[in-house]
Automatic annotation (TrEMBL):
Keyword Ribosomal protein on entry: yes
GO cellular component, one term: cytosolic small ribosomal subunit
GO BP of this protein: translation
Entry keyword Aminoacyl-tRNA synthetase: no
Record's keyword terms, sorted: Coiled coil, Ribonucleoprotein, Ribosomal protein, Signal
Leader sequence residues: 1-20
HAMAP family: Ribosomal_uS9_B
PANTHER family, A to Z: RIBOSOMAL PROTEIN S9, SMALL RIBOSOMAL SUBUNIT PROTEIN US9M
Protein name: Ribosomal protein
Molecular-function annotations in GO: RNA binding; structural constituent of ribosome
Length: 332
């Protein structure tokens, strides 16, 4: 009996745990749970059931001593509220940042557009203002970024000693451009004049004149309608040129134009050798026929009788016997 009345140490520990006074002044204290706690954690462990607390199964409420149930529910509600607040705050901050960036970009674009408009106005004033030579230069030569930069650099260096003023440079460039165009126009006009000038040219005696050159020979030829006489340096051409090949070359212009035996030819030739004199006379006869009748030009041009033969004797080279020939080579 006495052993039943004496309390053991384990009974005393349970009594202290199951004291009638609660640990908090309120049965369900409201405290903000820490953010790092897991949703299923409890502040207080459930007491071990060493003895019956529900009247041997008759008491259905088993959560009389579970103080963590209300705290967990309140913590969940608070977490959901804080999450919603945080999400709303993040969205608002991001929208504000985007709006500020868009405003800054618009301001930068407006400033760049203003600068471009000011530069365009300055260029228009230069092109239409008193410095019109600058605009004429750009219009004449074609506007490019490199040229414009170089001209602007020259304008900045206008006051430096030793450099010509910008106006002189502009005038020189403008004159060069106009000269190029005028040269082309002059050449075109010359060609037109030559084509127009291809008319019959006859002197007061009714003769057509032509000059011919070949190597070192120069021939002056006069032709007029006749019975086919050919005089060279006051001699008959068959006497002056005894070789048949040379005489055939002299008569080629007449055979090509189909006027053989209808002209009287009188010519003087000097310089060079026989072949050179033959070539000079043939060129002079062809040019004289062209002057007499421009319609005879196509057949003569086709065979090349109106082209001056520019071939000359090749000069002797030093260290050689002739122009190409070398001395005999001796090994020893």
């Amino acid at each position: 009996m006495l052993s039943r009345l004496i309390l053991k140490a384990s009974h005393l520990r349970l009594l202290t745990l199951l004291s009638s006074k609660p640990h908090f002044p309120q049965p369900n204290p409201i405290t903000k749970p820490p953010s790092f706690l897991l949703p299923n954690t409890h502040y207080f462990p459930k007491p071990p059931h060493f003895y019956s607390t529900n009247n041997n199964g008759n008491n259905e409420n088993e959560d009389d001593w579970d103080f963590s149930v209300g705290v967990e529910e309140e913590g969940k509600v608070a977490d959901e509220l804080f999450k919603n607040v945080e999400l709303e705050g993040d969205d608002g901050v991001e929208e504000d940042m985007l709006l500020e960036k868009a405003k800054e970009n618009k301001k930068l674009e407006e400033e760049e557009n203003k600068k471009l408009e000011e530069e365009e106005k300055g260029l228009i004033e230069v092109l239409k203002g008193p410095d019109r030579a600058f605009g004429d230069l750009i219009a004449a030569s074609g506007i490019t970024d490199e040229m414009l930069d170089s001209l602007i650099a020259l304008k900045d260096l206008e006051g430096i000693q030793g450099l010509p003023p910008l106006t002189e440079i502009e005038n020189m460039r403008y004159e060069k451009n106009t000269k190029r165009s005028s040269r082309a126009d002059i050449e075109r006009q010359k060609q037109e004049e030559v084509t127009r000038a291809r008319v019959r040219e006859v002197d007061t005696k009714g003769r057509a004149y032509g000059t011919g050159k070949r190597k070192c020979s120069i021939a002056r030829v006069w032709i007029q309608p006749g019975d086919g006489k050919f005089v060279v340096n006051d001699k008959e051409f068959d006497v002056y040129f005894p070789m048949l090949d040379h005489r055939a070359d002299l008569l080629r212009p007449f055979t090509e134009t189909k006027t053989l035996g209808t002209w009287n030819v009188n010519c003087t030739v000097k310089g060079g050798g026989v072949s050179g004199q033959v070539g000079a006379i043939r060129l002079g006869v062809s040019r004289a026929l062209q002057c007499w009748d421009p319609n005879l030009r196509p057949p003569l041009k086709k065979v090349g009788f109106l082209t001056r033969d520019s071939r000359v004797v090749e000069r002797k080279k030093p260290g050689k016997a002739k122009a190409r020939k070398s001395f005999q080579w001796v090994k020893r």
